[in-house]
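Request from the bench team (R.T.):
"We need a structural guess for the complex before ordering more S-adenosylmethionine. Sequence and SMILES attached. Just send the C-alpha coordinates back."

Command: build protein-S-adenosylmethionine structure.
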Amino acid sequence: MQLNEVLTDRQQRELEYHKDHAAANEAVLHEDFSYDVVEPGPRRWWNQYWAMYTYLLEKDLAGKKVLIIGAGFGEDALVLAKVGAEVKAFDLSPDSVSIAQKRAEKESLDIEFRQMAAEKLDYDSDYFDIVVARDILHHVEIEETMSEVRRVLKKGGILCFNEIYSHSITDRIRYSKIVDKWLYPKMTRFIYQQDKPYITEDEEKLSEKDVNSLLESIEILECRKYFNCVVTRIIPERLVLISKLDQALLRVLSVFAPLLGSRVLVGGVVGK
Ligand SMILES: C[S@@+](CC[C@H](N)C(=O)[O-])C[C@H]1O[C@@H](n2cnc3c(N)ncnc32)[C@H](O)[C@@H]1O
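Reply to R.T.: structure attached below.
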Protein backbone atom coordinates (compact mmCIF):
# COMPACT_ATOMS: atom_id res chain seq x y z
CA MET A 1 0.00 0.00 0.00
CA GLN A 2 2.38 2.68 -1.30
CA LEU A 3 -0.15 5.47 -0.89
CA ASN A 4 -0.11 5.28 2.91
CA GLU A 5 3.55 6.26 3.00
CA VAL A 6 2.78 9.68 1.60
CA LEU A 7 -0.48 10.44 3.38
CA THR A 8 -0.88 13.67 5.31
CA ASP A 9 -1.99 13.41 8.95
CA ARG A 10 -5.49 14.46 7.90
CA GLN A 11 -5.65 11.82 5.20
CA GLN A 12 -4.31 9.20 7.61
CA ARG A 13 -7.07 10.04 10.13
CA GLU A 14 -9.71 9.90 7.38
CA LEU A 15 -8.38 6.54 6.30
CA GLU A 16 -8.53 5.15 9.85
CA TYR A 17 -12.04 6.49 10.43
CA HIS A 18 -13.32 4.98 7.19
CA LYS A 19 -11.78 1.61 7.95
CA ASP A 20 -14.19 1.30 10.89
CA HIS A 21 -16.99 2.96 8.91
CA ALA A 22 -16.64 0.39 6.12
CA ALA A 23 -16.54 -2.50 8.58
CA ALA A 24 -19.71 -1.21 10.26
CA ASN A 25 -21.52 -0.88 6.92
CA GLU A 26 -20.60 -4.10 5.14
CA ALA A 27 -24.31 -4.96 5.20
CA VAL A 28 -24.78 -2.67 2.15
CA LEU A 29 -23.32 -5.54 0.15
CA HIS A 30 -26.42 -7.60 0.84
CA GLU A 31 -28.93 -4.82 0.15
CA ASP A 32 -30.66 -4.38 -3.20
CA PHE A 33 -29.27 -1.39 -5.03
CA SER A 34 -31.82 1.24 -6.07
CA TYR A 35 -31.58 3.27 -9.28
CA ASP A 36 -34.82 5.14 -8.60
CA VAL A 37 -33.06 8.51 -8.79
CA VAL A 38 -32.47 8.05 -12.56
CA GLU A 39 -35.65 6.18 -13.38
CA PRO A 40 -38.50 7.90 -15.27
CA GLY A 41 -41.22 9.39 -13.11
CA PRO A 42 -41.79 12.41 -10.90
CA ARG A 43 -38.67 14.07 -9.54
CA ARG A 44 -38.20 14.81 -5.81
CA TRP A 45 -37.43 18.51 -6.34
CA TRP A 46 -37.15 19.11 -2.61
CA ASN A 47 -34.31 16.61 -2.17
CA GLN A 48 -30.70 17.63 -2.80
CA TYR A 49 -29.65 14.18 -3.99
CA TRP A 50 -32.48 14.01 -6.53
CA ALA A 51 -31.81 17.59 -7.62
CA MET A 52 -28.19 16.67 -8.32
CA TYR A 53 -29.33 13.89 -10.67
CA THR A 54 -31.94 16.13 -12.28
CA TYR A 55 -29.03 18.40 -13.22
CA LEU A 56 -26.73 15.54 -14.31
CA LEU A 57 -29.41 13.81 -16.39
CA GLU A 58 -29.62 16.96 -18.55
CA LYS A 59 -26.07 16.14 -19.67
CA ASP A 60 -26.89 13.15 -21.89
CA LEU A 61 -24.57 10.91 -19.88
CA ALA A 62 -24.33 7.90 -22.21
CA GLY A 63 -20.69 7.45 -23.24
CA LYS A 64 -19.50 10.44 -21.22
CA LYS A 65 -16.26 10.00 -19.26
CA VAL A 66 -17.23 10.65 -15.66
CA LEU A 67 -14.99 10.80 -12.59
CA ILE A 68 -16.45 10.33 -9.11
CA ILE A 69 -14.14 11.75 -6.47
CA GLY A 70 -14.29 10.27 -2.97
CA ALA A 71 -16.71 7.62 -4.16
CA GLY A 72 -17.35 6.00 -0.75
CA PHE A 73 -19.39 2.82 -1.21
CA GLY A 74 -19.91 3.65 -4.90
CA GLU A 75 -23.54 4.85 -5.10
CA ASP A 76 -22.90 7.62 -7.62
CA ALA A 77 -20.51 5.48 -9.65
CA LEU A 78 -23.12 2.70 -9.95
CA VAL A 79 -25.98 5.04 -10.81
CA LEU A 80 -23.99 6.91 -13.47
CA ALA A 81 -22.62 3.70 -14.99
CA LYS A 82 -26.17 2.37 -15.14
CA VAL A 83 -27.23 5.27 -17.35
CA GLY A 84 -24.36 4.56 -19.71
CA ALA A 85 -21.53 6.81 -18.54
CA GLU A 86 -17.96 5.51 -18.68
CA VAL A 87 -17.20 5.81 -14.98
CA LYS A 88 -13.92 5.92 -13.08
CA ALA A 89 -14.05 6.45 -9.33
CA PHE A 90 -11.65 6.60 -6.42
CA ASP A 91 -11.59 6.93 -2.69
CA LEU A 92 -8.84 7.29 -0.11
CA SER A 93 -10.18 4.32 1.82
CA PRO A 94 -9.29 0.89 0.38
CA ASP A 95 -12.04 -0.60 2.55
CA SER A 96 -14.67 1.62 0.94
CA VAL A 97 -13.21 0.95 -2.52
CA SER A 98 -13.47 -2.77 -1.90
CA ILE A 99 -17.17 -2.46 -0.97
CA ALA A 100 -17.84 -0.25 -4.01
CA GLN A 101 -16.07 -2.71 -6.30
CA LYS A 102 -18.08 -5.67 -4.97
CA ARG A 103 -21.32 -3.75 -5.42
CA ALA A 104 -20.43 -2.94 -9.04
CA GLU A 105 -19.60 -6.60 -9.70
CA LYS A 106 -22.90 -7.67 -8.17
CA GLU A 107 -24.68 -5.22 -10.49
CA SER A 108 -22.56 -6.34 -13.50
CA LEU A 109 -21.33 -2.78 -14.06
CA ASP A 110 -17.92 -2.07 -15.51
CA ILE A 111 -16.44 0.69 -13.33
CA GLU A 112 -12.77 1.36 -12.63
CA PHE A 113 -12.36 1.92 -8.87
CA ARG A 114 -9.03 2.93 -7.40
CA GLN A 115 -7.57 3.99 -4.07
CA MET A 116 -6.32 7.53 -4.39
CA ALA A 117 -6.18 10.89 -2.61
CA ALA A 118 -8.22 13.69 -4.15
CA GLU A 119 -5.31 16.08 -3.72
CA LYS A 120 -3.07 14.16 -6.15
CA LEU A 121 -4.86 12.41 -8.98
CA ASP A 122 -3.35 9.68 -11.06
CA TYR A 123 -5.40 10.32 -14.21
CA ASP A 124 -4.40 11.88 -17.53
CA SER A 125 -4.93 15.58 -18.05
CA ASP A 126 -7.93 16.71 -20.17
CA TYR A 127 -9.57 13.28 -19.90
CA PHE A 128 -12.97 13.60 -18.20
CA ASP A 129 -16.20 15.22 -19.45
CA ILE A 130 -17.73 15.42 -15.98
CA VAL A 131 -16.42 15.34 -12.40
CA VAL A 132 -18.90 14.60 -9.62
CA ALA A 133 -18.08 15.43 -6.00
CA ARG A 134 -20.72 14.56 -3.43
CA ASP A 135 -19.95 14.96 0.26
CA ILE A 136 -16.23 14.86 -0.35
CA LEU A 137 -14.91 18.41 -0.74
CA HIS A 138 -15.47 19.02 2.96
CA HIS A 139 -13.06 16.13 3.70
CA VAL A 140 -10.16 17.33 1.54
CA GLU A 141 -7.78 20.22 0.86
CA ILE A 142 -10.03 22.11 -1.53
CA GLU A 143 -7.40 24.16 -3.36
CA GLU A 144 -5.18 21.18 -4.19
CA THR A 145 -8.15 19.04 -5.15
CA MET A 146 -9.60 21.72 -7.42
CA SER A 147 -6.29 22.21 -9.17
CA GLU A 148 -6.35 18.47 -9.97
CA VAL A 149 -10.02 18.57 -10.99
CA ARG A 150 -9.27 21.39 -13.45
CA ARG A 151 -6.31 19.42 -14.80
CA VAL A 152 -8.18 16.17 -15.47
CA LEU A 153 -11.28 17.83 -16.94
CA LYS A 154 -11.44 18.41 -20.68
CA LYS A 155 -11.95 21.95 -21.94
CA GLY A 156 -15.66 22.61 -21.53
CA GLY A 157 -15.89 19.87 -18.87
CA ILE A 158 -18.47 19.97 -16.12
CA LEU A 159 -18.01 19.97 -12.35
CA CYS A 160 -20.99 19.11 -10.18
CA PHE A 161 -20.63 19.26 -6.41
CA ASN A 162 -23.18 18.65 -3.70
CA GLU A 163 -21.84 19.38 -0.23
CA ILE A 164 -22.77 20.14 3.34
CA TYR A 165 -22.41 23.81 3.94
CA SER A 166 -23.04 26.51 6.47
CA HIS A 167 -22.83 30.26 6.28
CA SER A 168 -20.50 31.59 8.98
CA ILE A 169 -23.35 33.58 10.58
CA THR A 170 -25.66 30.54 10.78
CA ASP A 171 -22.76 28.51 12.09
CA ARG A 172 -22.47 30.86 15.04
CA ILE A 173 -26.01 29.84 16.06
CA ARG A 174 -25.23 26.15 15.47
CA TYR A 175 -22.18 26.35 17.72
CA SER A 176 -23.74 28.57 20.37
CA LYS A 177 -23.64 26.96 23.79
CA ILE A 178 -27.35 26.22 24.01
CA VAL A 179 -27.57 24.53 20.60
CA ASP A 180 -24.26 22.73 20.77
CA LYS A 181 -24.43 21.46 24.34
CA TRP A 182 -28.17 21.04 24.84
CA LEU A 183 -30.32 20.96 21.68
CA TYR A 184 -28.01 19.19 19.22
CA PRO A 185 -27.18 16.15 21.41
CA LYS A 186 -30.93 15.76 22.07
CA MET A 187 -31.76 15.92 18.35
CA THR A 188 -28.97 13.62 17.13
CA ARG A 189 -30.85 10.36 17.48
CA PHE A 190 -34.00 11.84 15.89
CA ILE A 191 -32.10 13.25 12.90
CA TYR A 192 -29.58 10.48 12.25
CA GLN A 193 -31.27 7.53 13.96
CA GLN A 194 -27.98 6.85 15.73
CA ASP A 195 -26.18 8.35 18.75
CA LYS A 196 -22.96 8.98 16.92
CA PRO A 197 -23.46 10.66 13.54
CA TYR A 198 -21.06 10.03 10.67
CA ILE A 199 -18.68 12.95 11.18
CA THR A 200 -14.91 12.67 10.95
CA GLU A 201 -12.52 14.63 13.12
CA ASP A 202 -11.25 16.82 10.29
CA GLU A 203 -14.28 17.35 8.10
CA GLU A 204 -15.45 20.93 7.81
CA LYS A 205 -18.69 22.05 6.26
CA LEU A 206 -18.06 24.35 3.30
CA SER A 207 -18.29 27.99 4.26
CA GLU A 208 -19.57 30.76 1.98
CA LYS A 209 -15.88 31.58 1.39
CA ASP A 210 -15.20 28.00 0.25
CA VAL A 211 -18.21 28.10 -2.08
CA ASN A 212 -17.07 31.41 -3.54
CA SER A 213 -13.58 30.05 -4.13
CA LEU A 214 -15.03 26.94 -5.81
CA LEU A 215 -17.27 29.14 -7.95
CA GLU A 216 -14.18 30.92 -9.23
CA SER A 217 -13.31 27.73 -11.14
CA ILE A 218 -16.71 27.70 -12.85
CA GLU A 219 -16.83 29.64 -16.08
CA ILE A 220 -20.48 28.98 -16.96
CA LEU A 221 -22.68 28.47 -13.92
CA GLU A 222 -25.63 26.20 -14.76
CA CYS A 223 -26.97 25.30 -11.34
CA ARG A 224 -26.60 26.75 -7.88
CA LYS A 225 -29.14 25.69 -5.31
CA TYR A 226 -29.28 25.65 -1.54
CA PHE A 227 -31.13 23.01 0.46
CA ASN A 228 -32.00 22.08 4.01
CA CYS A 229 -32.74 25.05 6.21
CA VAL A 230 -34.18 23.08 9.13
CA VAL A 231 -33.97 19.66 7.45
CA THR A 232 -30.89 17.74 8.65
CA ARG A 233 -30.28 20.52 11.18
CA ILE A 234 -33.20 19.79 13.46
CA ILE A 235 -35.54 17.72 11.25
CA PRO A 236 -34.55 14.48 9.51
CA GLU A 237 -34.61 14.30 5.70
CA ARG A 238 -37.08 11.39 5.80
CA LEU A 239 -39.95 13.73 6.85
CA VAL A 240 -41.14 14.48 3.33
CA LEU A 241 -43.78 17.14 3.96
CA ILE A 242 -41.44 19.25 6.08
CA SER A 243 -38.69 18.71 3.52
CA LYS A 244 -40.99 20.07 0.80
CA LEU A 245 -41.94 23.10 2.91
CA ASP A 246 -38.30 23.66 3.78
CA GLN A 247 -37.23 23.72 0.12
CA ALA A 248 -40.24 25.83 -0.88
CA LEU A 249 -39.21 28.35 1.79
CA LEU A 250 -35.64 28.47 0.49
CA ARG A 251 -36.97 29.07 -3.02
CA VAL A 252 -39.25 31.90 -1.92
CA LEU A 253 -36.47 33.45 0.16
CA SER A 254 -33.89 32.74 -2.52
CA VAL A 255 -31.86 35.87 -1.68
CA PHE A 256 -31.36 34.51 1.82
CA ALA A 257 -30.84 30.90 0.79
CA PRO A 258 -27.01 31.15 1.06
CA LEU A 259 -27.49 32.28 4.64
CA LEU A 260 -30.15 29.72 5.56
CA GLY A 261 -29.22 26.57 3.64
CA SER A 262 -27.11 23.75 5.02
CA ARG A 263 -26.32 22.14 1.69
CA VAL A 264 -25.19 23.54 -1.62
CA LEU A 265 -25.51 22.04 -5.09
CA VAL A 266 -23.47 23.58 -7.90
CA GLY A 267 -22.97 22.54 -11.50
CA GLY A 268 -21.26 24.25 -14.38
CA VAL A 269 -18.56 24.37 -16.99
CA VAL A 270 -15.09 24.69 -15.51
CA GLY A 271 -12.73 27.31 -16.93
CA LYS A 272 -9.34 26.02 -18.09
C1 LIG B 1 -18.95 11.45 3.45
S1 LIG B 1 -18.12 10.22 2.49
C2 LIG B 1 -18.85 10.49 0.92
C3 LIG B 1 -18.80 9.31 0.03
C4 LIG B 1 -19.58 9.43 -1.28
N1 LIG B 1 -19.18 10.55 -2.09
C5 LIG B 1 -21.07 9.52 -1.00
O1 LIG B 1 -21.62 10.62 -1.10
O2 LIG B 1 -21.66 8.51 -0.63
C6 LIG B 1 -16.52 10.91 2.37
C7 LIG B 1 -15.54 10.02 1.62
O3 LIG B 1 -14.35 10.75 1.38
C8 LIG B 1 -13.26 9.86 1.45
N2 LIG B 1 -12.07 10.69 1.63
C9 LIG B 1 -11.69 11.38 2.73
N3 LIG B 1 -10.57 12.07 2.47
C10 LIG B 1 -10.24 11.83 1.18
C11 LIG B 1 -9.18 12.26 0.32
N4 LIG B 1 -8.25 13.09 0.75
N5 LIG B 1 -9.17 11.80 -0.93
C12 LIG B 1 -10.12 10.95 -1.39
N6 LIG B 1 -11.13 10.51 -0.64
C13 LIG B 1 -11.20 10.94 0.64
C14 LIG B 1 -13.62 8.96 2.59
O4 LIG B 1 -12.90 7.74 2.57
C15 LIG B 1 -15.12 8.77 2.36
O5 LIG B 1 -15.40 7.66 1.58
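Two things stood out. The domain at 2-270 is CATH 3.40.50.150 (Rossmann fold). The mean pLDDT is 94.
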